[in-house]
Amino acid sequence: MRLKLGWLLLLGCATNVGAAGHLVVEHAWIRAAPRGAPMLAGYATLKNDGDAPVVVSGASSADFGDMSLHESVYENGVERMRPLGNVSIAPGASAVFAPGGKHFMLMDAKRELKTGDSVKVHISTKSGTGTDADFVVRETAP
Ligand SMILES: [Cu+2]
After folding, report:
1. Is it true that domain 19-138 has CATH number 3.30.300.30?
2. Residue 15 banded pLDDT, cuts 50, 70, 90
3. What is the whole-number distance in angstroms between the Cα of residue 114 and the centre of ligand 1?
4. Using one digit for the tens of pLDDT, what is the confidence trace for 21-50?
5. Ligand 1 center from residue 104 Cα (angstroms)
6. Where are the domains of the chain?
7. What is the pLDDT of residue 18?
8. pTM of the predicted model, to two decimals?
9. How far is the CA of 70 from the centre of ligand 1 (A)?
């Protein structure tokens, strides 16, 4: 009897691993660029409304051959871009991707994108399946 109770407790613990991060994508947009631009930049606010950290590890889209996470930094008055590693977002916190800072670098566009067009982007996370978001092509931030 005692043994059975022990097993039940163990099972209870094993199935009670409920804490999970949950990524919400807000204000997602891509800056409109002249036709044939070699690269585009996307921005969004990535919010974790779960109860465990979310680690964003990358992004992809069928509309682009390559998509990566970048950060703009100023060195001696010159803006440079460098690849961002994994972006960890604490529960309740947000990572803001905005002009002059973090951004999604979109290379090798597979179709011409005009203002008002929507691009489906998959944002991948280290644990879990990630999340999909629609990025709208705009002249200015929403
Ligand atoms: Cu970049």
Report:
1. no
2. very low
3. 20
4. 999 999 999 999 998 899 999 999 999 999
5. 7
6. 19-138
7. 74
8. 0.84
9. 5
3 Cα–ligand 1 center, Å: 59
Sign of CA dihedral 56, 24, 27, 120: positive
Q: State how far the alpha carbon of 124 is from the alpha carbons of 2, 6, 35, 118, 131, in Å.
A: 45, 38, 28, 19, 7
**Better pLDDT: 19 or 60:** 60
Name beta bridge partners: 21: none
Q: Residue 6 and residue 22: Cα distance in Å, rounded?
A: 33
How far away, in angstroms, is 9 Cα from ligand 1 center? 51
Residues above pLDDT 70, as percent of the chain: 88
Mean pLDDT on 69-88 = 92
DSSP per-residue string spanning 18-67 = -----EEEEEEEEE---TT-SEEEEEEEEEE-SSS-EEEEEEE-TTEEEE
